[in-house]
Amino acid sequence: MELWRIARLLFFILLCRPAFAEGLPPNISIEVEFKEFSRKDAGVKGLGETYSVNTSNYTKQHIVVTDGLSASIRVGKDVPFVDYYVDYLFDNGYIETREVVWKEVGTSLRVTPKIRGGVIEIELTPEISAVIDRKKKIIDVKTLSTTVMAADGQPVSIGGLIQDKDFSGMFFRSGKSSSLDIILTPRIIKK
């Protein structure tokens, strides 16, 4: 009986597919790249020479959405943080309780594209987050919300961030610096 239903469904799809494909709004492929570069001063070699460690992080998200509709994608994990509570009692005792709070970290993207002639209007909110310090419960979050117009296949730099922490004068530099560049590339998927 189950095989008969599958065969009937396949026949219906193959027979009616051209009728359904006509008049459907086009799909749009949205690609967002996060390019993050960091430099951290690591120490002193000798004779006052300092050296630094450079790192880079590259994340690319890709999502396909129908013209005029919204879509979202989230890639990451839930990280547990433990909160401790102490209730002191009248007879010099106490009750210690703990609560686990879960926080989401990773990358996410929410988009709503609309085709306007040969140009694509895109409302988007990309976000990237990471745990900085588990003991102090510090999460670094970088988010951006904007609306841009782009041609089909045209990369657009939609934002960025440059940070220079612990800058102490022109001759004595310590700490770390980082930069983040966010690039969007929309493509109309041809039928």
Task: Give structural notes.
- The chain has one helix at 2-21; strands at 27-46, 49-66, 71-88, 94-116, 119-133, 138-143, 146-151, 156-164, 167-168, 172-173, 176-189.
- With 191 residues, it is mainly β.
- Strand 4 (94-116) and strand 5 form a beta hairpin.
- Strands 3, 4, 5, 6 and 7 form a five-stranded antiparallel beta sheet that branches. The chain has a four-stranded antiparallel beta sheet with strand order 2-1-11-8, with no helix packed on it.
How far apart the termini lie comes to 35 Å
| Content-based structural category | mainly beta
- Count of individual helical segments: 1
Computed Rg: 25 Å
Coarse morphology: flat
* Helix amount: 10-25%
Order of SSEs, N→C? HEEEEEEEEEEE
Beta strand count: 11
Taking the sheet with the most strands, its summary is:
5 strands, antiparallel
**What percent strand?**
over 45%
Give the low-pLDDT segments: 167-173
Question: Could you tell me the mean pLDDT?
Answer: 78
Secondary-structure map with pairings?
Layout: H1 2-21, E1 27-46, E2 49-66, E3 71-88, E4 94-116, E5 119-133, E6 138-143, E7 146-151, E8 156-164, E9 167-168, E10 172-173, E11 176-189
Antiparallel strand pairs: 1-2, 1-11, 3-4, 4-5, 5-6, 5-7, 8-11, 9-10
